[in-house]
Design brief:
Helices cover 43% and strands 23% of the residues. With 334 residues, the chain is of the alpha+beta class. It has one domain (2-177, 261-332): 3-Layer(aba) Sandwich (Aminopeptidase), CATH 3.40.630. A hairpin with a 5-residue loop joins strand 2 and strand 3 (120-124).
Length: 334
């Protein structure tokens, strides 16, 4: 139970950093784990390093450009880049916000942590991103229901060329309850948001203006994309929704990074243990702890997977740009 608690505390550290604020879990990690060894000589970690090296090599093989023979995420001739540090000095975690049925991921964020300097970069992936799975095109948010976390992790690896050994999933019910525990978040709603989808049990009704959103309204805010009437909603669809999600994250960090909220950590933990799923183990916690405590959330950079929305086969898809994705990954995620 103690080990399980440590793991969930680290998940709380990561998730609250993206959705609430890492300061809460950071204080508990420092208190409960103290100055433990970073784990670099841990035999379990040595096996993990071997695994990551093999995974990295396989990722390079799968993502080689058929025209140039160069992995699409690697630099062009004349550039220099040693792929080794990308395996050992960075760690990637896929954060998934699931709908109430756990079949679709409405929030997809790749978190890249530089364990040397604590730099944290976040890449939001549009839920409508077109991918090929089981012989046909589909949207990336459907993969969690088709093949679980591993399937969507494999696709994000394909898109980015990065090895992603870890995932954390958070149910929207848990997100809602955490927001309520923290007393809501003040946001500017840009226009009236009205949308009803009985099949998804999704009902969004927000009025324009600055207001404090409770957990239920915060969920509505991050899930809204369009209205029921044609021409109503975000002009850029899912990309504007991602921007709204990032605005909410920044608002939470700005408003809740206060000492008075430290008392809420136990309540947050009790919520997360029921709504979080992860493959992070205690040996991983020890190994990456040094990098985790260096994170400065105010310096975190947020990005969106480059691409554009395209209407094809009677469906709107987000088609990611391979070249721009390669450049973005090379510049910020290695």
């Amino acid at each position: 139970m103690k080990t399980r608690r440590y793991i969930f505390l680290v998940c709380a550290f990561i998730i609250t950093g993206f959705f609430i604020e890492g300061i809460y879990a950071l204080s508990i990690i420092n208190k409960t784990m103290g100055n433990q060894d970073s784990g670099k000589d841990n035999p379990l970690r040595n096996e993990q390093v071997k695994y990551e090296r093999n995974q990295h090599s396989e990722t390079v093989r799968k993502n080689t450009d058929s025209n140039t023979g160069i992995p699409f995420f690697m630099p062009q001739k004349g550039d220099t880049l040693d792929p080794g540090p990308a395996v050992y000095d960075h760690v990637n975690v896929l954060i998934l916000g699931l709908d109430e049925y756990g079949e679709r991921s409405d929030v997809i964020i790749l978190a890249n942590l530089n364990t040397d300097n604590g730099n944290l970069n976040l890449l939001s992936v549009a839920r409508d991103t077109r991918v090929r799975a089981r012989g046909k095109y589909t949207k990336i948010n459907a993969l969690i229901g088709m093949g679980g976390e591993r399937m969507i992790m494999d696709k994000v690896e394909e898109i980015t060329g990065l090895s992603i050994p870890y995932y954390i999933t958070l149910d929207f019910k848990g997100f809602k309850k955490v927001i309520d525990v923290l007393g809501g978040v003040e946001m500017e709603v840009p226009f009236d948001m009205d949308y009803d989808d009985p099949q998804q049990n999704l009902h969004i009704h927000l009025k324009k203006g600055r207001q404090v959103l409770d957990g239920e309204k915060a969920i509505q805010f991050v899930r809204y994309r369009k209205g029921n009437r044609k021409g109503v909603g975000y002009i850029n669809g899912d990309i504007d929704r991602i921007s709204a999600q990032q605005q909410l994250i920044k608002a939470l960090i700005a408003q809740k990074a206060k000492i008075k909220y430290l008392s809420k950590i136990d309540d947050i933990f009790l919520i997360l243990k029921d709504y979080v799923k992860t493959n992070i183990e205690i040996s991983d916690v020890n190994y990456y702890l040094d990098g985790l405590v260096k994170i400065r959330y105010e310096k975190t950079k947020t990005f969106t997977l480059p691409g554009e929305s395209v209407y094809t086969n009677k469906t709107w898809y987000y088609i990611y740009d391979r070249q721009k994705t390669r450049e973005l990954i090379n510049d910020y995620f290695f």
